[in-house]
Amino acid sequence: MIQSMTGFGKVTAELLTKKVTVEIKALNSKQLDLSTRIPSIYKEREMLIRSQLLKELERGKVEFSIAIEYIGKETPVYINVAAIENYYNQIQEIAGKLGIAVSADWFQTLLRMPEVIKSKIAEPDENEWNTIQQTIHQAIAQIHEFRKQEGAILQKLFIQKIENIATLLNEIEKYEGERIERIKVRIMENLEKIAAKDYDKNRFEQEMIYYIEKLDVNEEKVRLDNHLKYFIQTMENGQGQGKKLGFIVQEIGREINTLGSKSNHAEMQKVVVRMKDELEQIKEQILNVL
Fold this sequence. Notes:
Low-confidence stretches: none
Mean pLDDT: 84
Structural class: alpha+beta
Number of helices: 8
Order of helices and strands: EEEHEEHHEHHHHH
Radius of gyration: 35 Å
Helix content: 55-70%
Strand order of the largest sheet: 1-2-4-3
């Protein structure tokens, strides 16, 4: 069963003084493109978090974030009274020299000065970090479940499109006899025009053999059929097959293009166009496969 690279996971853990929310978003990408937003109190664990994400998520454009919401009466933020007094005394001194009155509105300005509002955040203990790790693990599990669900939808679509191409491939056979007959008629008509002229019959036979081989599509049909079967087999081999499926799609496209160039028949070319349409729909979605 294939998986999609698209996924979303969000889990909230409630601690004594805060709620911690872990959110992961994943989109398609050739490699793992990871960006993180982690609060400063967990920064020393960032490499451990990144290593876990790299191992679990494999590929995709991944956005990871941890958000903290403090609850209850306790707050890690406090006003630095010493800093306010220092700023106020300096302002009073400068205002006195310049003859400027200091009004009550200045207090709002003081609160916005650097180092006035301080954070007193306790370092997370081992129990808190274990809870955060479990929350991350649960969010990753949600991503995996999301990817499996999306992958099942993609697999159903791919099977339908591959079966459509296989059906169209079978349609080509009914035009081959008519196609060969038309070629023979055209050749005979041209031969009648030069019947009175002398030409090298051996060379003519060689050219005819070359011409018929050039228009023969049996090899392309066999290869295309094999590629279609291999695509289905690869999907059933498990996750992580996205790149391999992409290569198989390229080979399928190559054989379809060769069939089109060799067909030399209007109805066969119409069938080839329909094949290309089905394949294009696979190409649009194959980039989302993990």
